[in-house]
Amino acid sequence: MNLDDNNKENFKSNSENNLEVNFTDKQTLKEKSITTNIDSSSTQLRKKISKTKKKNNGLIWAFKITFITLFLAAFFSLISEFTNYFHYIISIILLFILIFLSLIADAIGVAATSCNPEPIYALASRKEPGSKQALLLIRNAEKVSNICCDVIGDICGIVSGALLIGITYKFSASFSESAKLIINIAAASIVAGFTVGGKAFFKNISVRRSKDIVLLTARFISIFYNPKDMPTKKKKK
């Protein structure tokens, strides 16, 4: 009888222990599932917030770039209108300046988007001149490309077209109608070919020498703007 009682007691104690273990395991599993659900929901919430922030930033940037474009277009158009009162040689000089500005801006935009950031971070850690500005250009590569390639490039193209019309009109004023037509076609072809060919040439250089172009641009910007307390190390994801 004593053996039976002992066996019963052992069985009861074992079963109670098993129940306690199962209960604690279930509790830990529930707690883990709750924490994982909370973590997943928090990450989803963070993603949604970041998406909305990106959308809002995109809209704000679109409004900003619209006003910048309006201002720059008005400024360059005003200059081109003033040149109509001078000799057409001045208009030709301004035309080549605008074409060259468009080529340089396009090269900077391409270089900013294609530049490898690792060497720039290394230069920034050594506090090389212009490295902070170069980091800003790379971190805002989309905006830099938008300003340089789209805004400046398009404005220069539109204003140079208007200038070209004024130049050909002044130059061919004393010619016959057929000669005027030939001059207009030839001038438009030369300007278009020079612009497109120049962009192709500079794009090739800006992709191969993107770091040098970004640093050169950054050093020029450093004359007017010097950011302070800027992190120079790449964030680990």
How many runs of DSSP E, i.e. beta strands?
0
**Helicity level:** over 70%
> Main sheet, how many strands, which sense, barrel?
none
Distance between the termini: 69 Å
Overall geometry comes to: elongated
On the 0-100 scale, what is the average pLDDT? 76
Number of helices: 7
Q: List unreliable stretches of 5+ residues.
A: 1-8
> What is the count of distinct domains?
2
Share of β-strand residues: under 5%
Regarding quaternary structure, how should these chains be classified? single chain
Question: What is the rounded Rg?
Answer: 33 Å
SS-derived structural category: mainly alpha
Q: How would you spell out the order of helices and strands?
A: HHHHHHH
Give a structural overview.
The protein folds into 2 domains: about 1-60; about 85-235, no CATH class. Helix content is about 85%, strand content about 0%. It has 7 helices and no strands. The protein has helices at about 1-85, 90-115, 115-125, 130-140, 140-170, 175-210, 210-220. Helix 4 crosses helix 7. Mean pLDDT is about 75; it is low at about 1-10.
Short description:
The protein has 237 residues and is mainly α. It has helices at 2-83, 88-114, 117-125, 131-139, 141-171, 177-208, 210-221.
Descriptors:
237 residues; mainly alpha; 2 domains; 85% helix; 0% strand; elongated; disordered N terminus
Topology summary:
Layout: H1 2-83, H2 88-114, H3 117-125, H4 131-139, H5 141-171, H6 177-208, H7 210-221
Helix pairs in contact: 1-5, 2-5, 2-6, 2-7, 3-4, 4-7, 5-6
